[in-house]
Amino acid sequence: MYKVLIIDDEEPLREAIRILGDWKGLGVDEVLEATDGKMGLEMIANHSIDLVMVDMKMPGMSGAELLQVLEQDYPDLPAIVISGYNDFEYTRQAIRSKVVDYLLKPINRLDLNAALRKAVDLLEARRVRESEFINRNITLNMSLPKLKEKMYLSIIDRSFRSQTNEAFLPLIGADDPDNRFAVVVLRMLNMEKVRKARFHSDVDLLHFAVGNMLNEIAGEYFQAFSFASPKLDRELILILTMKGAYQEDIAYRSLHQMNKALAALQDLLGIVAVAGIGSPCESIMEIASSYETAKAAINGIDLLKLKGYFVANTVMKSVNESYPVTGRIQMFRAALESGNTAGAKSILSEELRKWGSADSFTIGEADQSLARFIILMNDMSLELGVPRDKLPLMEEHPVRFMGLSDDFASYDQFSKLLEDSLHFYLEQLRLTLSANRPFEIGDIKAYIDNRYYEDIKISMFADKYFLSREYIMKLFKQQFGCGIHEYVQRIRMDKAKELLDDPSLKIQDISEMLGYKDKNYFSKAFRNYFSISPTEYRTAGKEG
């Protein structure tokens, strides 16, 4: 839509133009008026005017003078001249000012709308050209960073072909022999938390904000270019380029700038991050090695000692092969198959305590242990019948598939992540087993009848059948008229009387056969139940 300004001191003419103009058909949504040249200039300065209609003869500033000002200050503003004088001087100024058309009074509808159509066509053509120009620039500005990113990544993964991409090498400074390079890998340890809290869960927006900060801070000494890692969205890759510098200078400056950048990320965005600085190199083709040392530096950071942000410029510790529930996989599998969730949790807790009490436990070992644990649990869950669509088998972010955050900035957070992951799999097993295996409360009674001498706890049935303690206790009492503990006591006492009738058995032996800790504990339980001690019961039996 367009905005037109009529500049004329004669109100009847302004009114006639308003009436005769086909404004709606021309796409004009607003027609403004000014009574003289000075007022017209003020309105042009304060409104987004697309087209002016100028009367050549006005008091004060004439139309010719106004056109001269417009030609100098608003060269792209189209004008239509209106005059009652067929004067050569006016026409010459109009031609010089490149007006769209020159109308003589009195104005008629046909000529007016023809002139307006010519002006609107000019505006539309200009807008199309401007739009194409803007789109070309947007495309160029967007494509250049993507092209640079693609080139850097191809060098890093060693798939770059020099002959094919030779024309683009100047874009990344590869044509200057004085340039020196280094790769920095930054890992956001609490990315999920920050992404949801401050960026409306938009990871691209988060990458953009972090990348801008890295480029700006590193740019004090380097040419800096950052982009998201295609392998891990919580990591960014930063390419540092420094002209004519010694490798020692790059190492010192990069360490200083990355400490500054990580402090700013934590202060301004609440991001806790670690960074690994790769070895400086003289050729752009060597940044693959720089990237690998940067990744190794991050992977070697000790999670047990990590507090807040940290920058590593050397590989502090190589990553050892670390397997989840090492050496105890069969025990873990047996616990899951039998429904012993407490046992499975205990095995994992023991491993976590072992790792946490070691001399070190690195970020790389944590990543590896988590990945292997998920593979192990996927395999076991499939074998136990959990449907494939309930498991993160081929997911890029398996932890997020479970509804969990894969953030961890400390060993305690890592431990909690593994425990929560185990809970997810146990819940899938519970749902699967409860759907495939009908529960009979009589099974619990039969178990007690046959194994009354064991240390029987309700939690073992809750874990086995994936049901709550409260539900099992309520169902048992409804079916058999007493609670589980009461029933265990009844079975033991009935068996105790049977055993006491055998004079060859000592009371100590009987207490052990019934599962009691010692003779005194059994005697007290027997007296509480029958109001008589085992010895008194045996004596009374002899007398009878």
TrEMBL record:
Keywords: Cytoplasm, DNA-binding, Phosphoprotein, Transcription, Transcription regulation, Two-component regulatory system. Residues 3-120 form the Response regulatory domain. It comes from the Bacteria. Its main location: cytoplasm. It is found in: Cytoplasm. The keyword Transcription regulation applies. InterPro entries: CdaR_GGDEF, CheY-like_superfamily, Homeodomain-like_sf, HptR, HTH_AraC, HTH_AraC-typ_CS, Sig_transdc_resp-reg_receiver, Tscrpt_reg_AraC-type_HTH. It comes from Paenibacillus glycanilyticus. The modification 4-aspartylphosphate is found at D55. It holds the Pfam family Response_reg. This is DNA-binding response regulator. Gene3D superfamilies: 3.40.50.2300, Homeodomain-like (1.10.10.60). Residues 442-540 form the HTH araC/xylS-type domain.
